[in-house]
Amino acid sequence: MHHASEDERFMRQALALAVKGPAVDPNPRVGAVVVADGVVVGTGWHAGAGTPHAEVVALREAADAARGATIHITLEPCNHTGRTGPCAEAIIEAGIRRVVFASADPGVTSGGGAETLRAAGVEVVGGVLAEDADLLNPDWAFSLRHGRPRVTWKYAATLDGRVAAADGTSQWITGPQARADVGRERARHGAVLVGTGTVLADDPHLTARDADGTLLDRQPLRVVMGLRETAPEARVFDDAAETISLRTRDAREALSTLQERGIRSVWLEGGPTLAAAFWRADCIDDVIAWLGPKLLGDGLVAVTDLGVGTIVDAIDLRTMDVRTMGPDVRWHLRVHRPGEEA
């Protein structure tokens, strides 16, 4: 007789292992624990795309002890052959008698592992600590559901919503704390995206740095989209991180290209024109707005025409978090689409 509390105890171990995997990766973070007669005989986690899946690592460690054992996995085992074989098959071959998983796999190609296991006579229990497990891979799950990466639009503006003065100057609307936060956020996303206009106007570097300007270990893919010619000597094309150019003004086209490259989250740092293109395509999910305590009165607004003519057509956002950092206010908002969880 298996007690739910025991399943949860070993699932917590699997969750703790999953966190060892890379937070930003084409693949989800997954942990696995093989238990025979109440004793852990194998553990594993997924170390990123191209490496063995968590279950396979744990089964290898367990070896013969896997026969008749239970495996606890933070995600439903995959059912398809990608770079690695399907984990459902590996579990059956190892002689595992019982599978306990947390999150169901939302992937059309990879999902359905539980059915394969049940058909082979393996006992399957799903949904154990699923809410905890879902928090491991929100961007990955989002991109599978929507067929595109999750997009966060970031901008820095004065109190009156200007992102640059009338003469085009914009440094510095916000203080050093805000800039350090942006560096950390870049590192937390798969790609940083700007338009050719921003490259021409500001020559940004788009690297992830800490407060004292040191490059962080993980750099996002730098993406420049648009049809205007940019200079090859622009800072964004240096060797501090990988950069790609997308010759398009179409937000959805750009995102589908990034989705194919395994990018699950995009930090949109472009100017008002690019932001408007993404809003009009309904491709923005979160907003991080930095407001500096300054007034410009005239100058460049944060976003250009959105096709909103009257107040009832305004785009409504939900405030998730507001905090002060140094002299500035950091405002995190989320786009709410009908039928979606908050």
UniProtKB/TrEMBL annotation:
<dbReference type="GO" id="GO:0008270">
    <property type="term" value="F:zinc ion binding"/>
</dbReference>
<dbReference type="InterPro" id="IPR002125">
    <property type="entry name" value="CMP_dCMP_dom"/>
</dbReference>
<feature type="binding site">
    <location>
        <position position="170"/>
    </location>
    <ligand>
        <name>substrate</name>
    </ligand>
</feature>
<feature type="binding site">
    <location>
        <position position="186"/>
    </location>
    <ligand>
        <name>substrate</name>
    </ligand>
</feature>
<dbReference type="InterPro" id="IPR024072">
    <property type="entry name" value="DHFR-like_dom_sf"/>
</dbReference>
<protein>
    <recommendedName>
        <fullName>Riboflavin biosynthesis protein RibD</fullName>
        <ecNumber>3.5.4.26</ecNumber>
        <ecNumber>1.1.1.193</ecNumber>
    </recommendedName>
</protein>
<keyword id="KW-0479">Metal-binding</keyword>
<feature type="binding site">
    <location>
        <position position="172"/>
    </location>
    <ligand>
        <name>NADP(+)</name>
    </ligand>
</feature>
<dbReference type="InterPro" id="IPR016193">
    <property type="entry name" value="Cytidine_deaminase-like"/>
</dbReference>
<keyword id="KW-0862">Zinc</keyword>
<feature type="binding site">
    <location>
        <position position="269"/>
    </location>
    <ligand>
        <name>substrate</name>
    </ligand>
</feature>
<keyword id="KW-0560">Oxidoreductase</keyword>
<dbReference type="GO" id="GO:0008835">
    <property type="term" value="F:diaminohydroxyphosphoribosylaminopyrimidine deaminase activity"/>
</dbReference>
<comment type="pathway">
    <text>Cofactor biosynthesis; riboflavin biosynthesis; 5-amino-6-(D-ribitylamino)uracil from GTP: step 2/4.</text>
</comment>
<dbReference type="Pfam" id="PF01872">
    <property type="entry name" value="RibD_C"/>
</dbReference>
<comment type="similarity">
    <text>In the N-terminal section; belongs to the cytidine and deoxycytidylate deaminase family.</text>
</comment>
<feature type="binding site">
    <location>
        <position position="156"/>
    </location>
    <ligand>
        <name>NADP(+)</name>
    </ligand>
</feature>
<dbReference type="InterPro" id="IPR016192">
    <property type="entry name" value="APOBEC/CMP_deaminase_Zn-bd"/>
</dbReference>
<feature type="binding site">
    <location>
        <position position="78"/>
    </location>
    <ligand>
        <name>Zn(2+)</name>
    </ligand>
</feature>
<dbReference type="InterPro" id="IPR002734">
    <property type="entry name" value="RibDG_C"/>
</dbReference>
<comment type="function">
    <text>Converts 2,5-diamino-6-(ribosylamino)-4(3h)-pyrimidinone 5'-phosphate into 5-amino-6-(ribosylamino)-2,4(1h,3h)-pyrimidinedione 5'-phosphate.</text>
</comment>
<dbReference type="InterPro" id="IPR050765">
    <property type="entry name" value="Riboflavin_Biosynth_HTPR"/>
</dbReference>
<keyword id="KW-0511">Multifunctional enzyme</keyword>
<feature type="binding site">
    <location>
        <position position="206"/>
    </location>
    <ligand>
        <name>substrate</name>
    </ligand>
</feature>
<keyword id="KW-0378">Hydrolase</keyword>
<feature type="binding site">
    <location>
        <position position="202"/>
    </location>
    <ligand>
        <name>NADP(+)</name>
    </ligand>
</feature>
<feature type="binding site">
    <location>
        <position position="198"/>
    </location>
    <ligand>
        <name>NADP(+)</name>
    </ligand>
</feature>
<dbReference type="GO" id="GO:0008703">
    <property type="term" value="F:5-amino-6-(5-phosphoribosylamino)uracil reductase activity"/>
</dbReference>
<comment type="similarity">
    <text>In the C-terminal section; belongs to the HTP reductase family.</text>
</comment>
<dbReference type="GO" id="GO:0009231">
    <property type="term" value="P:riboflavin biosynthetic process"/>
</dbReference>
<feature type="binding site">
    <location>
        <position position="87"/>
    </location>
    <ligand>
        <name>Zn(2+)</name>
    </ligand>
</feature>
<feature type="binding site">
    <location>
        <position position="209"/>
    </location>
    <ligand>
        <name>substrate</name>
    </ligand>
</feature>
<dbReference type="InterPro" id="IPR004794">
    <property type="entry name" value="Eubact_RibD"/>
</dbReference>
<feature type="active site" description="Proton donor">
    <location>
        <position position="55"/>
    </location>
</feature>
<keyword id="KW-0521">NADP</keyword>
<keyword id="KW-0686">Riboflavin biosynthesis</keyword>
<comment type="pathway">
    <text>Cofactor biosynthesis; riboflavin biosynthesis; 5-amino-6-(D-ribitylamino)uracil from GTP: step 3/4.</text>
</comment>
<feature type="domain" description="CMP/dCMP-type deaminase">
    <location>
        <begin position="5"/>
        <end position="124"/>
    </location>
</feature>
<dbReference type="Pfam" id="PF00383">
    <property type="entry name" value="dCMP_cyt_deam_1"/>
</dbReference>
<feature type="binding site">
    <location>
        <begin position="271"/>
        <end position="277"/>
    </location>
    <ligand>
        <name>NADP(+)</name>
    </ligand>
</feature>
<feature type="binding site">
    <location>
        <position position="53"/>
    </location>
    <ligand>
        <name>Zn(2+)</name>
    </ligand>
</feature>
